[in-house]
């Protein structure tokens, strides 16, 4: 395998210090992306893209994961042919103490409301 083939599978992520609050809030403002983050927060480890059953097209799903990755909310890595996703919770908690906990709790409360 050539080195360019390996590098083409490396996905760009912002460094911890490049993660911006407005980018995180924008990423989490979409219901599908918030759903992905809630599932990742409840997982014991990484989840592959195929572990998510979202009511949108594959291209739209890919877009949502890219927005979450580029904002610094998730980390995506290839393991074999699977693209694995993990929440960058520790880094987000260091940068914005209490934010993820409050957002996830609010999203859980909203999910149980009528029409939620």
UniProtKB/TrEMBL annotation:
Keywords in alphabetical order: DNA-binding, Transcription, Transcription regulation
Give the matching PROSITE patterns: HTH_ARSR_2
Domain of life (superkingdom): Bacteria
- InterPro entries in the record: ArsR-like_HTH, HTH_ArsR_DNA-bd_dom, HTH_MetalResp_TranReg, WH-like_DNA-bd_sf, WH_DNA-bd_sf
Q: List membrane-spanning regions.
A: none
Q: Which GO terms describe its molecular function?
A: DNA binding; DNA-binding transcription factor activity
What residue stretches are annotated with the HTH arsR-type domain? 13-107
Query: Which SMART domains does this chain map to?
Result: HTH_ARSR (SM00418)
PANTHER family found in the cross-reference section:
TRANSCRIPTIONAL REGULATOR, ARSR FAMILY, TRANSCRIPTIONAL REGULATORY PROTEIN
Give the protein's recorded name.
Transcriptional regulator
């Amino acid at each position: 395998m050539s080195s360019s083939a390996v590098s083409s599978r490396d996905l760009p992520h912002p460094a911890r210090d490049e993660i911006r609050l407005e980018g995180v809030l924008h990423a989490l403002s979409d219901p599908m992306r918030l759903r992905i983050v809630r599932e990742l927060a409840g997982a014991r480890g990484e989840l592959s893209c195929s572990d998510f059953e979202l009511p949108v097209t594959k291209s739209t799903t890919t877009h949502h994961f890219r927005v979450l990755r580029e904002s610094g909310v998730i980390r995506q890595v290839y393991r074999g042919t699977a693209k694995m996703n993990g929440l960058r919770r520790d880094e987000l908690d260091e940068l914005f103490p209490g934010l993820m906990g409050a957002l996830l709790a609010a999203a859980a409360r909203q999910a149980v409301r009528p029409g939620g």
